[in-house]
Amino acid sequence: MRAAGEPDRRKLIAAVLGERPADLSIENVRLVNVITGEIYPASVDIAEGIIILVRTEGEPGPEAKERFDGGGNYLIPGYIDTHVHVESTMMTPENFARAVIPWGTTTVVADPHEIANVMGVAGVQFMLESGRRSPLRHFVLAPPCVPSVPGLEESGAVFTEKEIGRLLDEPGVIGIGELMNYLKISQGDERMSRIIAEGISRGKFLQGHAPRLQGRRLAAYRLAGPQSDHECRSSGEAAEKARLGLHINLKTSSLSNHLPEALMGIQGQRWRDNVSLCTDDVHAGVICREGHLNRVVAKAVGYGADPLEAVRFATYNGAREYGFEDLGAIAPGFAADLQLVEGLNGCRPLAVWIGGKLAAREGEMVMDWESGPAEPFCPPKLAYIRSEEDLELAAPAEGGETLVIQSRADGPFNRAAYERLPVRGGKVVIEEDPDLAWICVCNRYGKEQKTIAPIRGFGSVSGAFGATVAHDSHNLVLIYRDPADALLAVKKIQEMGGGMALAEHGRICASLPLPAGGLMSFCRCEEVAAQAERLEQALKEKWGNVWLLKHATAALPVLPGVLITDLGIVDGDRQEFLPQFRIPG
Amino acid sequence: MRAAGEPDRRKLIAAVLGERPADLSIENVRLVNVITGEIYPASVDIAEGIIILVRTEGEPGPEAKERFDGGGNYLIPGYIDTHVHVESTMMTPENFARAVIPWGTTTVVADPHEIANVMGVAGVQFMLESGRRSPLRHFVLAPPCVPSVPGLEESGAVFTEKEIGRLLDEPGVIGIGELMNYLKISQGDERMSRIIAEGISRGKFLQGHAPRLQGRRLAAYRLAGPQSDHECRSSGEAAEKARLGLHINLKTSSLSNHLPEALMGIQGQRWRDNVSLCTDDVHAGVICREGHLNRVVAKAVGYGADPLEAVRFATYNGAREYGFEDLGAIAPGFAADLQLVEGLNGCRPLAVWIGGKLAAREGEMVMDWESGPAEPFCPPKLAYIRSEEDLELAAPAEGGETLVIQSRADGPFNRAAYERLPVRGGKVVIEEDPDLAWICVCNRYGKEQKTIAPIRGFGSVSGAFGATVAHDSHNLVLIYRDPADALLAVKKIQEMGGGMALAEHGRICASLPLPAGGLMSFCRCEEVAAQAERLEQALKEKWGNVWLLKHATAALPVLPGVLITDLGIVDGDRQEFLPQFRIPG
Fold first, then answer.
1. Which of A254, A482, B20, B548 can bridge B536 by disulfide, Cβ–Cβ 3.0-4.6 Å?
2. Looking at CA atoms only, how far is residue A190 from chain B in angstroms?
3. What residues form DSSP beta bridges with B352?
C-alpha cells in the first residue's frame, strides 16, 4: 500500500535521468538508512513529493528548483505513530497535526475510538475530514469495541460488523482498531469474530490490545486475528508477544509508561523488526513542552535502546507494520517525509518535510491551511439530572452493605469491597468518612440512566468534578462530596456543550469547554494545554495528588478490576455486574 | 495475504483452549524462532494445518491425535524459494514438488516465463494446475517479458498488459515476474509501464531483475516499480540495492553463482531483513544429489553467513518479501510448514511437514497423489527444415566479412567480430578452422524464420546438438559442424515432441525427450536427471568442456553482449540488430 498514493512514475524517471528538473535537493546531510542501519554523507533529490535519488557526497545531482543545505545534520524519515487516540489530546485532527508535525511526526495511525463511542460513524467521518485538511498523513482504524463491552455500558453508538465494514470501505481507513475486548476475543466470541472477519476479508490490519495476556490465552487471542499489541506490562510479556510475531508498539502515553519493562523484554532478542513506537493517549500540554513520538524515541534511548534502532522503531518498522511501502525510509520511491535532526535521541527537528514540502522549521509550522468550521456538535443530553437528589444514593429498604469502589494508588486497577455505610433519610451518607467520595456515571446520549457509588482513596475530594471525557463510553462522570456542587458542574458542562468543570462551594472554579462531541476543543494546542492545566492545577490544589483523567479509568469496563458504568458496577475480570448492596449472611 | 487460506479461527481457538483435540504435537525440539533470533526447547501443537501453540519444555499440551518426538533436533520453518523457473528443472511442477519437498522446500514463487514464451496463458495455466496437485505451495508470478524483447525475437506468445491482467486475476498468481528488460524499464518504456501498472493497480508484487545496474539507472529502475533483485554480481551492487530497500534474493543457480559477492556486500550492513534466497534455474541432477533451497542455505553458511540468519533468509524474509503473513515462522497462526533438521547448515531434513501433514521423511516423500495426464503438448513446428542446405549460410553475392559470435570462456556474455571466412559454392564454410561451429536459431512456433551464424570458442564441436530449450524464446537452437547431423537432430527432436538430441556421423548418440511444451519431461527427478546426465556426458566426451545449456544463453536478447535469435544477431547492450555481413571500408 502506498500511503502517498500512486505517483506519475514516468515523471519521476524523467527527473532522475535529468530530463526535467527535480523540485528539491536536500544537500550535505548525514543520511540515516534505517533499512540497512548505515549512516553516510549524502544528498537527496525529490520530485513530485517522492525521493528520486540518494547521492553520495560529491556526486553531481540533477538540476533542482530549490536547494536546502542540511549543514551536516542527520536526515531521518518522518516519525510514524502506530497507535494514537487523537481525541485524547482534546484537539481536532487538524490542530493535532499543527502540534505534532514540528516534532517530526509525519504519519499517524489513529483509532477514533472515543468519538465513535460518542457519535458512531459520523464521528469517525469528522476525524477523517479534519485530518484531510492537514498535510499530516492521518490514517484511521475502524474502532471495533463500540461500546467496549455491550451490555455492560451504553454509549452513543453501537457498532456491529455492518458499521465496521462500512468504515473499512472509506478512503483512509486501513484496518480495525484496537481489539481491546481480549477476554471475549480469546474465547472466540461470535460478535467480535464477525467484526474481525470484515477486516480479514478485505486484507486489512487488525490492531490488538491484550494487557497481561500470555500462554494459551494469548495464543487464542492471536489465532482470532489481532496482529499487534501496545500493552506489554512486563519484560516476559513483551518477549513472549514478540516471539509470536505480534507487532510490539512500545508506548509512552500520558496514562501509563511500561516502556522500560517492554524494552527490556525485547532487548535480549537478536531481532526486533516488529517493534514500533506509539503514544496512545497523550495530553496537549505534553505535546507543547516535550513533543510527540520524538518523546517516545527519547524515552527508549534513555532506557537503553540504541539510538539508530530507536529511529528505526519510529519509522521503518512502523511503516512495515501497516504495509506502507513508501514510508519510513529514505530511498528512491519513498515519500519525501523527512526530518533534519542534530541527534538520534528524539530531539526536536531543525526542519520537517512532508511530501517534499517544508512543513515546519525550528519547532514552528511553516505550512498552513484553512481551518475547518468550529461548530459545536453532539452536546451532552443531561437535562434529566434536575436536582441534588438525583445525585444521591438511595439505600435499600432491607438495609445491608454497600459496594465501595477502591481507587488504588499502588496499581492502575480499582478494587471494591462491601462496607456498612451510614444511612440517613433513606440515603447512604459519606460525610463522616473523609476518604470517601461519590462517583456517578450518567448516560449522556439520551437515556436517563446512571449509577452512583461510593469511592474510596480517590483524593481529598471536595465540591465536585465532572467530565464528558471518560473512556470509552464518554458518559458524564462526576466525582464529588457535595451533590449541590455536582449539579452545578452538570449545568456548566451542559452550557459548554461538553467538557470538564470543577465546582466548590456553589461556584465553578475551573472549566474546559470541549464542544466537539464533548471530547475535543476547536482551540490550538497551546490554548487547550493552558485550559487543561488551569483545571488540573485547581484540582491538585483542592484535591491533592489527582491527575486530570483519573476519573476516566474508573469507567472503562474492558479493564481488569472493578469499574463503573451508566448501567452499574462491573467486575472487569469476569465482565459481569456486581450487586450494589448485599445483606451479609 | 494468507498463503494457506483463511482458517476456521474458532476451531483453532477451541483447540488451543483444550475444547477439542489438536491434530498433531511435535514434541522435544529445539525451536528456531526466526522472528526474534532465539532458539529454545519447545513443543508445537497443530490443528487444521495451523500452528496453534508453542509450549516451552515441560508445559502440558492440549490433547493431540498424534504425537511426534523431535528427538531434540532443530525445528525450523519450511523453506521458501523466492525466485525459480520450474521449467529449468525440466520437470512438471508436481514432479518438481516431489523432488524438492524432501529437501525442506515447502513454498516456491515460480516465474513460468519459459512455458509462457512457448504457449502463452495456456502454459501458465498448465503450471498452475500441475502445481495444485502437489502439497507444495506453488505460487506463480505473471511473466511480463514475453517475448523478452519484442521485435528482436519471436516466441510462441506475446504478452501485453491484457494477458498480464488476466493472469493476475487467476488464483495463485501473486505478482508480476522478473522485469528483466531493465534497460527499457529504467527509461520509462511505454509497454513495460502499462504492464507494471496492471500489477500496481492490484497491489501485487513486482519482481525485479537488474544485473549490474547502479546509480541513477538503478534509481530509475526502482522508481518504475520493481521491488526485488536476484542479479547482484558484485558486493557494491548488492550493498547499494539493499540501501534502496530492494529485496535481495541471494541465489545459487545451475547457471551462475554470485552469492559470495552479494553476501559480502550485505554482510557489512547492520540489518538484512530484505534478504532472501532463491535458486532461479537449477537442474534435476543437482536437486537429486544436493537439494534445492537447502543448497543455497549451505552455500551462504559456507561463505560466512550466520547459520541462524541463513535460515531466516530462507524462511521469514522470503515470506515477508511477498507478504505471506502465515508463512516462514513457527508461532500460533502460521501454517504448519515445518522441518526437523540436525543443523542449521542446509542439511537434508529428517522430516518435513506441510500444513501439519508429514510430507517427507529422511529424504523420501511419504505423501503421494494421483499424477496429472502425461500427454504431450505444443510440439515444435520444424517441418520447414527440410534439407542440409536449409542449415547452411549463404554468402552475399558482393562478398565481405561475416559476423562471428565469440563464445567467451572468461565471462558469461558473448562478443562478436567480423571475419573474412572462406566461401564455396555460394556458402560460407568453416571446415578449415577447428575453433568454428555453426549456431542456428529456428523459430519453432509456426513461422519459417531462422538465423545461422558462425560461432567461435564454443568447444570441440563435432556432429550436431539441438534443443528446444533456449532462454527465453525456446526456439530450436542448433550447434553443429555438420549440417547433415544437424538435420538428423531436428528430425529426432520433432519425433520426441521437443527435447534435446546429439547426433554424430549420421547417428543419434543421446537424446532427452521433453514432450511438455518442448521444455519439460513427464518423468520424475531421478529419471530426468539420468537422461540429462547421459546427454551431457556424451556432449562432454565429444565436445570437451561444454555444459548442457551453454547454447541457451547465446539466444537471450535481454542479456548483455551479442545474442542470436530467430530474427537475427543482436547487440544486447543496445538492443538492436547487427548486420550479418559487412564490406570493410
1. B548
2. 9
3. B339, B360
pLDDT given for residue A386 in this prediction: 97
Q: Provide the grid cell at B257.
A: 553463482
Phi, psi of B248 (to 5 degrees): -100, 115
- pLDDT tens per residue across span A302-341: 999 999 999 999 999 999 999 999 999 999 999 999 999 9
Other residues' Cβ atoms within 10 Å of the Cβ of residue B290: 16
Size of interface A-B (CB pairs under 8 A): 150
How confident is the model at residue A412, as a pLDDT? 65
**The sheet that has A562-565: what strands, in order across it?**
A562-565, A568-571, A576-578
**A229 HSE (CA, 13 A, CB side):** 29
CB-CB: which of A36, A193, A331 is closest to B269? Answer: A36
Query: What pLDDT is stored for residue A409 in this prediction?
Result: 65
Residues of B in Cβ contact (< 8 Å) with A10: 188, 193
Q: What is the pLDDT of residue B95?
A: 98
CB-neighbour burial class of residue B213 (10 A; exposed 0-12, middle 13-18, buried 19+): buried
Q: Is residue B358 pLDDT above 90, yes or no?
A: yes
Q: A17 and B220: CB-CB below 8 Å?
A: yes
Distance CA A114, CA A498 (A): 14
Decide if A307 touches B, using CB distance below 8 A.
no
Does the N-terminal peptide bond of residue B226 adopt cis geometry, omega within 30 degrees of 0?
Answer: no
With CA atoms as reference, the chain A residue closest to B61 would be A216
Task: Report CB contact under 8 Å: B16, A271.
Answer: no
User: By the CB < 8 Å criterion, does B270 face chain A?
Assistant: yes
The band of A411, judged by pLDDT with boundaries at 50, 70 and 90, is low
In sequence order, the 6+-apart residues with CB closer than 8 A to the CB of B87 are B112, B113, B114, B115, B519, B520
Assign A64 to helix, strand or coil: strand
Q: Which chain B residue is nearest to residue A329, measuring alpha carbons?
A: B245
- Is pLDDT at B458 greater than 70 in this prediction? yes
Inter-chain touch A37–B1, beta carbons under 8 Å: no
CA gap A337, A327 in Å, rounded: 7
Alpha-carbon distance of A391 to A424, in angstroms, equals: 15
Q: What's the confidence (pLDDT) of residue A551?
A: 80
Domain layout of chain A by residue ranges: 78-307, 388-582
Question: How sure is the predictor about B411, in pLDDT bands with cuts at 50, 70 and 90?
Answer: low
Whether the pLDDT of residue A525 is over 70: the answer is yes
C-alpha cell at B220: 530509475
pLDDT digits (tens, 9 = 90+) for A452-487: 999 998 889 999 999 999 988 999 999 999 999 999
Q: Is B393 helix (H, G, I), strand (E, B) or coil?
A: coil
Q: Sign of the C-alpha dihedral, residues B56, B61, B64, B66?
A: positive
Homologous superfamily (CATH) for A78-307: Metal-dependent hydrolases (3.20.20.140)
Cβ–Cβ of B36/A193 closer than 8 Å?
no
**Beta-ladder partners of A419:** A402
Does B410 score more than 80 pLDDT? no
From chain B residues 202-261, the ones with a CB under 8 A of any chain A CB are 203, 215-216, 219-220, 222-225, 227, 239, 242-245
What are the C-alpha distances in Å from B292 to residues A386, B108, B231, B305, B466? 79, 11, 18, 18, 28
The torsion region of residue B202 among left (phi > 0), alpha (psi -120 to 50) and beta comes to alpha
pLDDT tens-digit map of A86-136: 999 999 999 999 999 999 999 999 999 999 999 999 999 999 999 999 999
Helices and strands, counts by H and E, chain B: 15, 31
Measure in Å the smallest separation between the Cα of B263 and chain A Cα atoms: 14
Q: Distance of alpha carbon B131 from its chain centroid, rounded?
A: 15
